[in-house]
Design goal:
Shape: globular
Number of helices: 14
Order of helices and strands: HHHHHHHHHHHHHH
Low-confidence stretches: 221-235
Number of strands: 0
Strand content: under 5%
Distance between the termini: 25 Å
Largest sheet: none
Length: about 325
């Protein structure tokens, strides 16, 4: 579904739904709250952060948030976003299912519509890497892994330029798929749990990474005029694309170092290396920006699903 520029009320309601979904598993830890607050602070909109703070403090009922979404498309989008956040960590928990059932009721979504949304979101959010990923894939190693990593970084940078919400959901599964292939090239058979823990080492929580991606896209509708509304929107798109490119590149390169060293790098070494690689990725993004924009023009909903199918080839 498209993420069009939104007015403040709709944007804040949709972001609030995302935050509710991120906290729906019952694990309302200080770190989760801090991450949600960081995302709220990231938005360049005066009204967004206070609204999200109300959710974190329990002062904004979910029923009020749902009531503010009056059109069928807004209600469907809200449910799609909530599903994407809940499924970011894997299979939906009992607490998350209860939340989603309650949200669906508040949004007055019929069973046929909600099942269609769940099918699309699950196909992307629950795309788990595994042995089937290598059915048609080569196993690059060493310097060749750098090309694979750059290709995934370009792809994820391009996905951030697309207006579809499902494009944002695809970034994390593609990062996992990349790490799986890198580990396999060095002789490690990785499962999804290990890969998620590896990515979380760098402070990239599963649910929060997806919430942040949505937040960047929502913010486009509220950008302050910087030489005109269009210029502001383009600048924000580029910022989101650069962040997705940099995080994917840094994850891939540090994964290559880690598995090449037989997993002997310490957590501090991993974190330090990751931050340095993100800085390096900034220049690489500038050098590859034309390729990223060209890649975005070739992508659509069908091609996004194709990228995550078992046995699909590395992006080129």
């Amino acid at each position: 579904m498209l993420l069009e520029p939104l007015d403040d009320q709709k944007r804040n309601s949709l972001l609030s739904v995302c935050v509710f979904a991120a906290l729906a598993d019952g694990g309302k830890s200080d770190s989760e709250r801090a991450e949600m607050q960081r995302i709220a602070d990231m938005l360049d909109a005066e009204s967004a952060a206070p609204v999200i703070q109300q959710v974190l403090l329990g002062k904004l009922p979910l029923s009020d948030v749902a009531a503010a979404l009056t059109s069928p498309s807004d209600r469907s989008l809200a449910y799609e976003l909530a599903l994407g956040v809940c499924e970011a960590d894997g299979a939906i928990t009992d607490e998350e299912r209860s939340f989603l059932d309650h949200l669906r009721s508040l949004l007055s979504l019929d069973t046929t519509k909600s099942l269609a949304i769940e099918s699309e979101v699950s196909a992307i959010a629950l795309a788990v890497p595994g042995p089937q990923e290598l059915e048609t894939a080569s196993l690059p190693k060493g310097p060749e892994n750098q090309k694979t990593i750059l290709n995934y970084s370009i792809l994820n940078g391009a996905l951030e330029l697309l207006p579809e919400s499902l494009a944002t959901m695809a970034i994390l599964p593609l990062q996992m798929k990349m790490v799986y292939r890198i580990g396999k090239s060095h002789g490690f058979e990785l499962d999804s749990g290990h890969i998620k823990e590896f990515i979380a080492t760098f402070g990239l929580g599963m649910a929060s990474q997806i919430v942040e991606g949505f937040a960047r896209k929502f913010a486009r509708g509220a950008m302050k005029k910087l030489g005109g509304q269009l210029a502001g929107r383009i600048a924000d798109q580029a910022a989101g694309s650069a962040m997705s490119f940099a995080s994917t590149y840094a994850i891939g390169m540090i994964a290559d170092r880690y598995y090449r060293s037989n997993r002997k790098l310490s957590t501090p070494e991993l974190k330090s290396g990751f931050e340095g690689l993100k800085d390096q990725a900034s220049k690489l993004y500038t050098d590859n920006r034309t390729l990223i924009e060209e890649k975005a023009q070739t992508l659509n909903g069908a091609s996004i699903f194709g990228l995550l199918k078992p046995g699909s080839k590395d992006p080129v």
